[in-house]
Amino acid sequence: MIGRLNHVAIAVPDLDAGIALYRDTLGAKVNEPQDEPDHGVTVVFIELPNTKIELLHPLGDNSPITGFLEKNPSGGIHHICYEVDDILAARDKLQASGARVLGGGEPKIGAHGKPVLFLHPKDFTGTLIELEQV
Hints:
The protein has 134 residues and is α+β, with helices and mostly antiparallel strands. It contains three helices and nine strands. It is globular.
């Protein structure tokens, strides 16, 4: 059902420092920050030859990243995103097997302009999983 790894998302307390680390220290191609108000985050994608890294920073007072950073003040891996061909079929199959889909189970449009869903980390060895339709 899952396809290739789309990205690994890392929550960062200082977006400019995260950008500088990947661009200047590691020499990666870093895209411009983009605000995602529907998700409460500012994202920056770092392009690698085989996948992407997504830096996440809180946007607004109700950002879901704020709580994560309170528990992890230095930042850290927030979620892993896998590609799927049909997000609704994937959702239905996962729910039938007992997996919990967050947010009421309806896809939202993600940072790439494509439908996404998140799966409860307690069902996936403590890892928040994002599925993105390609």
